[in-house]
What we know:
Chain A is of the alpha/beta class and 350 residues long. Helix content of chain A is 41%, strand content 19%.
Amino acid sequence: xxxxxxxxxxxxxxxxxxxxxxxxxxxLPGYGTDKYCESAKKKIIDxxxxxxxxxEFLAGGTQTNAVVISTMLADYEAVxxxxxxxxxxxxxxxxxxxxxxxxxLPGKDGKLAAETVKKYMEMLAGDDSRExxxxxxxxYVSHPTEYGTLYSKAELExxxxxxxxxxxxxxLDGARLGYGLKSRETDVTIQDIAKLTDVFYIGGTKVGALxxxxxxxxxxxxxxxxxxxxxxxxxxxxxxxxxxxxxxxxFTDGLYFRISEHALxxxxxxxxMLEAQGVKFFMHSPTNQQFxxxxxAQLASLKEKIAFTFWERYDETHSVVRFATGWSTTEQDxxxxxxxxxxxKVLSDL
Amino acid sequence: xxxxxxxxxxxxxxxxxxxxxxxxxxxLPGYGTDKYCESAKKKIIDxxxxxxxxxEFLAGGTQTNAVVISTMLADYEAVxxxxxxxxxxxxxxxxxxxxxxxxxLPGKDGKLAAETVKKYMEMLAGDDSRExxxxxxxxYVSHPTEYGTLYSKAELExxxxxxxxxxxxxxLDGARLGYGLKSRETDVTIQDIAKLTDVFYIGGTKVGALxxxxxxxxxxxxxxxxxxxxxxxxxxxxxxxxxxxxxxxxFTDGLYFRISEHALxxxxxxxxMLEAQGVKFFMHSPTNQQFxxxxxAQLASLKEKIAFTFWERYDETHSVVRFATGWSTTEQDxxxxxxxxxxxKVLSDL
Amino acid sequence: xxxxxxxxxxxxxxxxxxxxxxxxxxxLPGYGTDKYCESAKKKIIDxxxxxxxxxEFLAGGTQTNAVVISTMLADYEAVxxxxxxxxxxxxxxxxxxxxxxxxxLPGKDGKLAAETVKKYMEMLAGDDSRExxxxxxxxYVSHPTEYGTLYSKAELExxxxxxxxxxxxxxLDGARLGYGLKSRETDVTIQDIAKLTDVFYIGGTKVGALxxxxxxxxxxxxxxxxxxxxxxxxxxxxxxxxxxxxxxxxFTDGLYFRISEHALxxxxxxxxMLEAQGVKFFMHSPTNQQFxxxxxAQLASLKEKIAFTFWERYDETHSVVRFATGWSTTEQDxxxxxxxxxxxKVLSDL
Amino acid sequence: xxxxxxxxxxxxxxxxxxxxxxxxxxxLPGYGTDKYCESAKKKIIDxxxxxxxxxEFLAGGTQTNAVVISTMLADYEAVxxxxxxxxxxxxxxxxxxxxxxxxxLPGKDGKLAAETVKKYMEMLAGDDSRExxxxxxxxYVSHPTEYGTLYSKAELExxxxxxxxxxxxxxLDGARLGYGLKSRETDVTIQDIAKLTDVFYIGGTKVGALxxxxxxxxxxxxxxxxxxxxxxxxxxxxxxxxxxxxxxxxFTDGLYFRISEHALxxxxxxxxMLEAQGVKFFMHSPTNQQFxxxxxAQLASLKEKIAFTFWERYDETHSVVRFATGWSTTEQDxxxxxxxxxxxKVLSDL
Lengths: 350, 350, 350, 350
């Protein structure tokens, strides 16, 4: 079945798979100490081209969020995130499980504003009982956000400024980073992110890898004994090569960015097709996730033809659904979706 | 360089890699809900052939130990393990990190005796301050152990009996299970293990997979909301297919057991070669890990030719080193090792 | 200095102190196994007069919340609370530290509505990604709330009904329970609470004890090995008698309720005095905590004469402050406050 | 019944109780910010008379161990203790619950030798897999130990030296510190302890208080936001005065040391009496806890007359039992025990 269910519906991009195959028989040391991990780290650092970068690989996004937050924060610190942030709602409490509370503040279109953080910190400073409250030590943002939206450079600079003012670390969850960096509507480069944040990650799972996220500590600030902390959280792969080889491929000949551009091209076609069919969007997204409002009456029949994701209720008779593109999305897929939407269209709507 | 460093030096067994390649382009749902996970689970259950089995996949061994122990124990319970057990020493405190204490009791040759557990439980029962002590809820054994040794069926039955007597769950860490099941010196079958334990796992990472362990709950006793607990521990892969496809391949045409037999054949040749060279063994191992005592004077030069693992000091001038075989070990490798040992031999030893 | 800073400004009520003194020289066993703990438990159970009650003592409120929630919930469960709930904001993340996430939902006047819980549970039930979200296992309410307000019997019944419908435990934080039970505006009895909740606690620290909270499990549902869990959280006092003796005194001759009535009488006088002075209230409170809106210009000078607590900003030139009464509050104290308010009054306000 | 069950059988020493009574009606701020906490801290610092001391109060011993260890260690660090150490066996896993593993190493007579720590650290340094093992960050010793024994100054200096060599913090659990400092067989002063350790605590619960331990950070090294961490662990008392007032009394006119001397005098008489009766000691203790070997046949009848504590089995027909003295022990108590021992003596023994 044609699927727009997510950007992790397919296996690895062929170039990634090819490299896994080519290197399969080599005898390599374990736990990420192999030459492909080294090479991949170097390529990522060279791609960014700044001083002070350190790269580490982990297997998945929630794991990365929990490991990064808990190793970079002191035990008494908490992390601030938008109420719609992935760590606030969709990680089963993984961050709190490590001992650091998530302070959820209201955002807009999935984004957390510098002003919101600033006001919270000012409120705390004026509250005599602040030692009874979790002490913020970090701000978490996702870019693209869970709604496919993007921070502008000015917004990131403002967040970074507030973080510095209040001694907060800034962590950018880049599970879908490529789709942000290559969006036609962004003015944010990977260098901007490296400069403005303390740590961010370059998502692999959703951008062509079988699994894997590359964490970039941007200021020579990798926590001490990081490997031990990864092991302690059950996140250390014996065959660390699995991550190294994949990222080595992703950062050879700009594959990571080519994949991103392809998915964005497909998303653009998708948007045009949906607009042509008169479908209403839940919010404007300049990346590879598109959130459409469809009548509930159409969903069941559409589901039989196309895979997609229910996101949330819109109103009593409509739902928000997500269509995501990825490295494997084809023009043919979009045509199939167009056809299916027509066939399942309900007469009177919106 | 020829490597006996571990059983995770190479990538995936070719049949596993082939299946990953063949299924790579299929669009599949995420988080382990795809058809290959289903198929792999069914094949594992059919291989064992007992009622009440439930299978779940995780990525690595330490992760599996931490997830299984913490989801099967109540918060107030602790797990008993040999002092040499993997969870006691080599997991960076991953089990304690989940909140359940590891009670380490002395073993022999890596094995924990039923009598040792029984005596501990009797001591506790007679101690008025037992509510001040961690309350045992589980016994953890590894099979093969960290020293390559195996429990006999009688030993496992005795452990299982003591566990039932005291209401303890029995958990068998099978990171290298295949090498135990196919050992020429074992009388323990996978059915025995399924009957005698409450939960065990079939290690994939060390038996031909890129990553992955298959947890088998043996008495319809998978903890409720297991997927949520896996997510909460950062252990849920978005592309769960990565685990399903590999285990599907491993349990097709007995591949898992063929890999195990190959590694054991290679280990047998290795042992004969070492014996022929007069190398002393640290202890007898009937599986794929062999522990040899070598003079320190030889280690440095040997290391330049062959990769292997330092295990522990033997005496002031000798070390215990590990040679492990796996799916990728060849007769040629053993010949290379033989040659290297001869070339680096120190004159007067032992 | 006269103080309305809190209801824990003074030591123990004289009758409590007397009992501590009288029993001081008796040799008693430790860890809460003494006869005064037994006697106090019996008196509390007799006071409530229902079947299935089990009582345990702990030292403080945050400790009690963390112990009760983490011992009654499974590892994968979370607790729902109002965003203004004590566990949501003022316990430094103590509940999350035990591993269970706090899901904060909007309340009104410090109270969480049954309808709010119901809608959240319905939203979850309809969300395909619900296994990626914390799984609610309990609802937490405080009565009186952090704003001194009270649930009506109908409101508690509605909450209890929703909890039963969705398999949620209901936990009532009664740090100030006496002031709720004896309020002139309540229709809720301690029997109602015992019937409608799964667990609640009778606060001692804020109602005449030096320290101590009495947890009441209402349905023979005390978690197994509770003493071990208390020890594990560092909450077990060697001289458990300290708690037992105090609660024995508090539940002798209705002292707990006499203390509560006294504080409520004083609160009533306080309210009348404040009204007479034209002070505006932040919200109506029928208990011993009164929240007044005062001009910032007055606060500094008032602070030199009277101890009270800043609560939160009201607007740019006003603050909400709390005046609390307790067992030691006297009519003289209120007169002093009246005098101080007059002396510090700023001319043009509100 | 006459009781030698522990050193926490009675309430507060009369001078402590008197101060609690005298200060009972004063209105004081909460959470340990009152003047008695301040005064008590100053008195303790003055008693030690060194620079860089910081004092904080907590309620009980296990709580103190868990709070101190988890706030002074990084998340990736573990604490080394003797296998008989309180944190190793009798705290229900409270330290591990905070996330830091306890590494238990063999001791002798309850004491951990510097050489044992050194060898462990050397072993680690030579082990390639050390990043897979918990990373020691602290050494925990109790003084007196759980068996009433004491470290000599030379032994503490050796431990302190090894700790500095390997970058380990040294933490001394002084739950019974007074009985060590005032023992006739010690050459260790409180100044020695303050100089040689990074942190230690002065036990109150077992030396005349109702509850309370005074933690002394010795090198201006109190962890940041310590109050927040205490709150997060549920250990912050609203009426912090309860701890401050008691320690203020204990450190007025040398009460803490007078209590200790009294208990040691009583222990000396106890030992003489037991020796006169031909009772065998399990090990020599120079402090207030005495461990005697008694025939099982005598225990039941003795228990009817005297309260004491079963410690552990000695052999098939004998047990080790503990007799402890404290501030409330009288010569009359010892005479009663003598009489009871005679009356219950079994004919042929040992």
